[in-house]
Amino acid sequence: MSEWAHIVNWQGLLTGLVAFFIIGVFHPLVVKVEYYWSRKAWPVFMIPGIIAVVASLFVFHNFWSIFLGVLGFASFWSLLELIKQHDRVKKGQAKANPKRTYVILFPLVITFYNLNFSGLVVGFATFIIISKARYLTIVAEYYFSKKFWIGFLFMGIVLVALAAFAEQIEISAILAITGFTYLWGIGEILEQEERVKKGWFPRNPNRN
User: Fold this and answer.
1) To pair with 114 at 20 to 30 A between CA atoms, which of 132, 140, 195, 205?
2) Cβ(197)–Cβ(36) under 8 Å?
3) Among 192, 176, 60, residue whose Cα is nearest residue 139
4) Cα–Cα distance between 185 and 168 in angstroms, integer?
5) Do 149 and 189 touch, CB atoms closer than 8 A?
6) How do residues 118-171 score in pLDDT, each as one tens digit?
7) Helix (H/G/I), strand (E/B), else coil: 11
8) Closest CA to 20 of 57, 71, 72, 90
9) Quick check: helix, strand or coil at residue 114?
10) CA 187 to CA 166: how far, in whole Å?
């Protein structure tokens, strides 16, 4: 047991798992926030995101710095997702709240510099990973159907395994976050097929 403790980078794996749960919480939260308060509630994601990112610069324990960075950039991703959710509602791809109207949002972009970059780097990587993940599931479903869940499972397991043996925590965390995001994609590609059946997304005419 002690030998594995020295070989496996548990901090990277734990960071990936935490990111997995953060994404899982923020995804339905975005839908609820847009439904009840519209995208004018963007400070709900922007302010905590800024606080978390700034805090990550002053925390010199790499694990907690990365955790705060992931949380911060997940909040920024949720802000962008809030705007996209608004557009989906307007297109009839998501449920609209009949008791309110929509307002225009001008998002702010704020960057910070210096100090411990571990959280910032991994947080930004998380932002890129999760911002592209849903698009990847849409493309995968379009060309390969929901059967491609096995591809997400395989990639997720491989990346999580690689994360366990990466010595540098930043690399381990990014691999683990990517791996857990692929595992999250298993459920998302199944949901995407249901969206296609409802006519929300185009069906590939070249496959059964």
Assistant:
1) 132
2) no
3) 192
4) 26
5) yes
6) 777 778 788 888 878 888 888 888 888 888 888 898 988 888 888 888 777 878
7) helix
8) 71
9) coil
10) 27
Distance CA 149, CA 184 (A): 10
- The C-alpha atoms of residue 174 and residue 138 are separated, in whole angstroms, by 23
Q: What is the DSSP string of 12-77?
A: HHHHHHHHHHHHHHHHHHHHHHHHHHGGGGTHHHHHHHHHHHHHHHH--SHHHHHHHHHHHHHHHH
What token pair was written down for 111? 């960057």
Question: What is the 8-class DSSP label of residue 130?
Answer: H
Hey, what are 116's tokens? 């411990």
Domain ranges of the chain: 2-197
Number of Cβ within 10 Å of residue 174's Cβ equals 27
Which two three-digit tokens encode residue 42? 């963007």
Q: What is the DSSP letter of 168?
A: S
Q: Please report, rounded to a whole number, the percentage of residues in the chain having pLDDT higher than 70.
A: 86
Structure tokens belonging to residue 18 = 């935490």
Which band of pLDDT confidence, cut at 50, 70 and 90, is reported for residue 174? confident
Residues composing the chain = 208
Dihedral, 93, 97, 100, 102 alpha carbons, nearest 10? -20
